[in-house]
Structures are given as C-alpha cells and as structure tokens.
Amino acid sequence: MKEHMIDSNGIGIQVYEYSQKGEPLVFLHYMGGSSAIWRGIIPSFIEKYHVIAIDLRGHGKSDQPETGYQLVTLAEDVRTVLDTLGIKKVNIVGSSLGCYVGTKFASIYPERVLSLVNSEGALVEIDPDKTKEEHLEYFSVPEQEFESKQELIQFMKETWLPWNKERERVLVDYEPRKLENGKVTFTSKKENLREIAEDLYDTRISEFYNNIQCRVLFLPAEKEGDLNKKLQFIKSVEPNLKNSSTVVIPGTSHAMMFDHPKELIDVIINFFDER
Question: Taking every annotated instance into account, which residue ranges of this chain make up the domain AB hydrolase-1 (predicted)?
C-alpha cells in the first residue's frame, strides 16, 4: 500500500493506494469516519481493481481547515486526487456522506464515473419537517473529552455496538485530536461536521441524479431509518438514470461494512461483474 498526501488547493488530502492494476475503484467513508472503515472490505477488491481510499477533508489524517466543507468542495477534492494520480475514470463506492460526495462528483463529471455504489447515503431528501436548527442540534452539543486515548477507545468499545473485529480494525492506529486542556477527543471537529450537515440541509439530492450517466447501485439499509421512504426516493430518481438497481441486504443498519461485510462485498462484486 502507498500513502499520499495530495494538495487540493492548499489542503492536504490523505490517500491510500492499495493496488495499481485494473479499473480504478475509490472508497469514500461516512461523516466522522475515515478510510479505515473499509479495511475489512478492501482486501476483496485489490486483486482485480486499482483500489484507492480517501480521507475526506476534516477526517482521518487529512487537513482540517476551518471552512470549505460544502459537497462541491469535497467533490473537487476527489477530482484533484484522481488528477494527481493520473486517473481519468473511476468506480466509486460510498457510505453515507461518501455517497453524497460520490453522487455530487458523478453529477459534475459524469464522463469520469464508470459506476456508483451508494450504501445508505444520498437515498432521501433531508426531512422537510425539521427546521435547520433542529437538523443541526446534535452539532451544537459540546465535544466529548477524555483523559487519554485509552479512555476514548474504551468508550468506543462500550458504545459502538455490536463491538466486533471489523470495528476494532478502525481503531488500530486511531489518533484522537488533542485539546488545549490536555485532554483528547474524536479526530473530526464538530464545527466542521456541522458545516457539512448545513450544506446537506440546503441541498436537493434528487437533482444530482439528473446528470448522472453511469450505472448506480442503491443499497438502502433495512433497519436504519424509513426503508419505504428510501425506496420511494430511489423510484423517483430511477427514470433519470440509464441503468440502476437496488438491493436491500436483510438485517442491515447504517454501517453495513461492519455488521454484514461478506454480504456487502458479494453484492458489490456481483454489480461490477454484471457489466
């Protein structure tokens, strides 16, 4: 594996290049996570694909600027990464926020995306019954503080359930963010995540699909949110897509790469092989 710190208009974007043969395949993580969430998934793809995982700005080992967290900016970071690595066309697999970024990228640069896999993201419009303040309420709560990295990881083991080897892989080299008072907290800053959430609130996700030319695989979780609402959204955007399919993996929740990794891998591989 090669690591790259790629400059995107003055912001460092951490990139992991796991292999360099086959069609390019980019993995994009969920909000508050990092490319490490894909560690249990990526090994199944490196023999056939040129696999790349990106830490979105404000996440993982990428820089954390005070501003610049709109979807269009995150998508442009992806473009810069691809341009720097000399990649013209790519397959994209996203989770949650990664789906929004991947779908935005595919709408701006439709000629550059071979296929798009949206795992529990970009599947509904933001709830119109909630005000922006209600939508952003979580991000106004003060950040949790821990005395040490060990205390933070213990907290994760007790609350990030069901705890298993897939989740444990994420924390192997996890580096908490140090606070001025000597304590530590989670890597991503809440004020940066709030800016992402605010942009999502102001965005009509369905409009992204109007300009997408590639094949799309929708993977709504069965037990996260309103499945029927997600299926209705997918049905509403399908007429604008040339080729799409939907798979609901039984028992899945938001982060299906942890609790249903084998099923997720099989569905994605089957989707790629159908071309």
Answer: 24-126
